[in-house]
């Protein structure tokens, strides 16, 4: 019994000693395990913060892309409104000129009526003073017509003005007025000089308008570049913030959990790539203008070109199409601003595919179809649209009525106007 008790005591003492010897390493192991768990929790928290930052960065990138697209749409809308305003101003000037012309014609009619009354009175009285009165009134009528023609002459109405003066001279001579050829030539010479002044002023205005357009486009490009630089700087700051958060995460965990960090880096690179793609897509949107134009002097009636342009100033594209490759400028019948210009253009081309002028070369976008049918198709695919039914075609109409002598005067006036400019305008 004594031996058994001794053995039990020995075993109990050994167990107690072993417990006390292993307790310190056990506590140390538990402390290390707790530290590892805390580090893992901290890393999870950092990863959640980085994911939130990445989502915020992606949302900011989408907002920037939407802002760029909105700015482009506003700039295009402003250009369209400016072009429409210029067309309305031109129409108002034409209306004012027509009103002045009508008033002049009424005045001339009154003068001519008084002149005819004097002629009838002279025929009844047979007095020589009546003949003098007839000559005086006839010359007064001719001078009034010549003065009105000088006031109304424009860069494209010279032939019409010359014909009015010639018709007035024939009329007063037919009524017995002794209007000399020298008097008629003097009136024609004064008309030519006025036409040269008007032409020179018109050329100068066109040059100044081109310079102003170039200045506006340069300013718009500069503003766009500054805005893109600002957005790029903002995106870089956001990228740097995310990168700094990654560096802090790397420092905090002392290089542990490198796989998760690399995944975060890959996510950051993907977010940056998405941001760049969003900017690229925002700058190359499908916004634009679909135009419907005609050139009756070049292609005849009811032939229209249906095309599109992404330029902020769509009229510049129309002016390019009416350059030296065709004899007359194009008239704009419709200028449609839309968010998907290629789709609207394709829909109109498909609608009028059977009316193509050139059916083997689809890049030639000319169609022989009434303008009303085009307006109906635009309403069906886009919505309500305003359009001009009849072409203005001023140069074509005046070219048909101009004589050889008038054409020589026009050529000389343009040559002198170009030579008078201090600096030749670029084509």
TrEMBL record:
Database matches in InterPro entries: Phage_T5_Orf172_DNA-bd (IPR018306)
Keyword annotations: Coiled coil
Pfam families the UniProt entry points to: MUG113
Bacteriophage T5 Orf172 DNA-binding domain location: 298-381
Coiled coil: 26-67, 208-281
Protease as UniProt keyword: no
UniProt name for this protein: GIY-YIG nuclease family protein
């Amino acid at each position: 019994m004594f031996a058994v008790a001794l053995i039990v005591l020995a075993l109990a003492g050994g167990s107690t000693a072993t417990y006390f010897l292993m307790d310190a390493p056990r506590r140390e192991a538990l402390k290390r395990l707790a530290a590892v768990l805390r580090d893992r929790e901290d890393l999870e928290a950092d990863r959640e913060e980085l994911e939130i930052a990445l989502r915020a960065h992606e949302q900011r990138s989408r907002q920037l892309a939407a802002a760029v697209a909105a700015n482009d749409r506003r700039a295009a809308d402003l250009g369209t409104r400016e072009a429409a305003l210029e067309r309305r101003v031109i129409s108002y000037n034409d209306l004012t000129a027509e009103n002045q012309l009508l008033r002049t014609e009424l005045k001339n009619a009154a003068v001519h009526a008084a002149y005819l009354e004097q002629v009838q009175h002279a025929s009844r009285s047979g007095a020589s003073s009546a003949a003098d009165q007839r000559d005086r009134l006839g010359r007064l009528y001719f001078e009034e017509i010549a003065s009105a023609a000088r006031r109304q002459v424009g860069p494209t109405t010279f032939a019409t003005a010359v014909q009015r003066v010639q018709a007035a001279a024939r009329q007063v001579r037919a009524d017995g007025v002794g209007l000399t050829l020298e008097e008629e030539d003097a009136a024609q010479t004064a008309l030519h000089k006025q036409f040269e002044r008007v032409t020179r002023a018109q050329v100068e205005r066109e040059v100044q308008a081109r310079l102003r357009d170039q200045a506006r486009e340069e300013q718009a490009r500069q503003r766009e570049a500054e805005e893109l630089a600002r957005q790029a700087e903002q995106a870089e700051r956001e990228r740097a913030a995310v990168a700094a958060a990654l560096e802090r995460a790397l420092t905090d965990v002392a290089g542990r959990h490198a796989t998760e960090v690399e995944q975060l880096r890959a996510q950051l690179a993907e977010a940056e790539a998405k941001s760049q793609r969003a900017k690229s897509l925002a700058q190359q949107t499908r916004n634009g203008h679909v135009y419907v134009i005609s050139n009756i002097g070049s292609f005849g009636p009811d032939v229209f070109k249906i095309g599109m342009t992404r330029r902020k100033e769509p009229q510049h594209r129309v002016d390019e199409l009416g350059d030296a490759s065709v004899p007359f400028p194009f008239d704009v019948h419709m200028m449609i601003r839309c968010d998907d210009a290629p789709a609207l253009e394709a829909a109109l081309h498909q609608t009028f595919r059977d009316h193509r002028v050139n059916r083997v070369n689809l890049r030639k976008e000319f169609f022989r179809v009434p303008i009303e049918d085009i307006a109906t198709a635009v309403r069906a695919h886009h919505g309500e649209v305003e359009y001009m039914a009849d072409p203005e075609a001023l140069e074509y109409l005046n070219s048909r009525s101009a004589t050889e002598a008038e054409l020589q005067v026009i050529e000389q006036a343009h040559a002198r106007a170009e030579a008078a400019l201090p600096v030749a305008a670029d084509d």
